[in-house]
Amino acid sequence: MDTLSRLEQTIAQRRAADPAESYVASLHAKGLPQIARKLGEEGVEAAVAVLSGSAEELTGEAADILFHLLVALDARGIGFDRVLEELDRRDGISGIAEKASRSA
């Protein structure tokens, strides 16, 4: 089992934990708006790290984005396997062509 799969399982297990003892449970207790807000904050912090952070800072922010994305997917009942399937579907397709196909 890879790291993201293990993390996805851990997040699912902690979803119903005591919010005072689990960060994942505390996010879930606050609902989708807070989960979305945290994901957005991490995205901004990663973008800043791309421009002016060290490799270590960007690496940490990338990990934060992946973690919060998995929390968001879990909150919506979407397994990471669906994201991987979508990436597989896009494999070999130009990004420009793929984006155009979504707007058609």
UniProtKB/TrEMBL annotation:
Species whose genome carries this gene: Qipengyuania citrea
Q: Does the record bear Calcium in its keywords?
A: no
Question: What protein name does the entry list?
Answer: Phosphoribosyl-ATP pyrophosphatase
Leader sequence segment: none
Give GO BP annotations, semicolon-separated: L-histidine biosynthetic process
Q: Which UniProt keywords apply?
A: Amino-acid biosynthesis, ATP-binding, Cytoplasm, Histidine biosynthesis, Hydrolase, Nucleotide-binding
- Name the domain of life: Bacteria
Q: Which reaction does it catalyse?
A: 1-(5-phospho-beta-D-ribosyl)-ATP + H2O = 1-(5-phospho-beta-D-ribosyl)-5'-AMP + diphosphate + H(+)
Enzyme class name = hydrolase
Q: Where in the cell is it found?
A: Cytoplasm
Please name the taxonomic classification of the source: Bacteria, Pseudomonadati, Pseudomonadota, Alphaproteobacteria, Sphingomonadales
